[in-house]
Amino acid sequence: MPRGDKSSYTDKQKRQADHIEESEKKEGKSEKEAERIAWATVNKQDGGGKKGGGSKSGD
């Protein structure tokens, strides 16, 4: 996956990033800076792209 590819993110994560980006733009940030902040925030909250399902079973 090339750097900057957002295909591994869920729809919810993409919506969150869009919302954060719009908020940052309203605060006067540039398009590029707002996008960087938005994706950094989503990554910090969720740890990156899609997470695999399932659970660990304890013995």
Description:
The protein is mostly helical and 59 residues long. 54% of the residues lie in helices and 0% in strands. The chain is built from 2 helices and no strands. The protein has helices at 11-26, 31-46. α1 packs across α2 (31-46). The chain is elongated, with a radius of gyration of 14 Å. The model has no long low-confidence stretch (mean pLDDT 86).
Number of helices: 2
Shape designation:
elongated
Radius of gyration: 14 Å
Low-confidence stretches: none
The class by helix and strand makeup works out as mainly alpha
User: How many strands?
Assistant: 0
Average pLDDT = 86
How big a fraction of the residues is strand? under 5%
Alpha-carbon distance between the termini?
A: 36 Å
Largest sheet: none
List the helices and strands and how they pair.
Elements lengths: L10 H16 L4 H16 L13
Helix pairs in contact: 1-2
Summary, kept brief:
The chain is an all-alpha fold and 59 residues long.
Feature tags:
59 residues; mainly alpha; 2 helices
